[in-house]
């Protein structure tokens, strides 16, 4: 009888889980660096495939591949530094104020095999070797990637390179695998040997997968990055701001999860710069025919909504192969029109389309934001220095912080820096679980806390031992300290 290929993948990942989790920080870090170097060595080949399959430009893809490689290096250093393990050691204390305390030692440990559903719009940075895969591997979890159908050849070749580099660095067989096909992805998500899931894509598919993960006999954490319209609020609207807005909307044909879908400007602002800037943008191929069809329909819905004024109509051209090519579409409405046409206007437009909303009352923006945009990856404020300094925008900023993963001042949300302090997440519907998928904190999604009570040194994991062979940060609570509780608050 032929073995079910999905069963074989799950079995290999499960067999690799404990050996991979036990690798030392330097061993695992060196493996990630080996992957980065292998990807860079194969860059010409990979970029050529990616250009052909996605229609993205060579410059864009080269930058994305560089980001992917250096992200792996950042995680390598994070592993070796060890702070992400959150090691806590409480010494035994017979005089503990609540009652005698045993020796307790806690750290974060890998959850086990992770299933990563790759994205279409970032064929390197959020795909096979992208952030979710890098974070899972850094955490010490075997990773299985479900390839995106939009770039199958690139997915296969990237997976071959990653798996070979990990194997060459001495990592266990089964540490990194690739599958394809929606049915296989769903089947593996339901497999009890998969212990966490990650996804970047549409709200509909992400929610479906999250519900599957939650309805398993033993539910697992699922980290889905879904839809986001990333509103921008401006207290002025000069030509420089409007031109930068169009650049952000049209970059990579608007196929970015952080594209500003709405720009709020004062009523009566001169918006002619938008028309001029959008008219100078060359057409750009959308990622695949399915995205082209969806964008074309979404664009028709927005242009057909009542009360919409067109600033830049743009175009969508489809070639004989079904590939769509688009130029920017920008419309403007007032607040009442936006409120009255929520169904037509508020849904994310994945492509080069955005809505400018003209408002009368700046003080009404905080409540309007909370009502219309309950969860976003980003929200942005553009204001003059005196307006930022006088505190009058504090209510708006507070509303943005409650509903967004990242709040920007004076910039544009497209472009997500890979750095320790980055938060790329947000309340639902931006994500299914409000965590970050970019930056070093992303590793914590694939870890779980384990405490050891009264354990002999010989049986403790290396980070919890007194001799600390991995030299990781240890937060210690010594005996007798409980009697000082509250003194720092006086």
TrEMBL record:
InterPro entries: Ald_DH/histidinol_DH, Ald_DH_N, Aldehyde_DH_dom, Aldehyde_DH_Superfamily, ALDH_KGSADH. Residues 460-490 are annotated as: Disordered. The keyword Oxidoreductase applies. Pfam families: Aldedh (PF00171). The keyword Oxidoreductase applies. Keywords: Oxidoreductase. It comes from the Bacteria. Residues 2-363 form the Aldehyde dehydrogenase domain. SUPFAM superfamilies: ALDH-like. PANTHER family: ALDEHYDE DEHYDROGENASE-RELATED, SUCCINATE-SEMIALDEHYDE DEHYDROGENASE, MITOCHONDRIAL. This is Aldehyde dehydrogenase (NADP(+)).
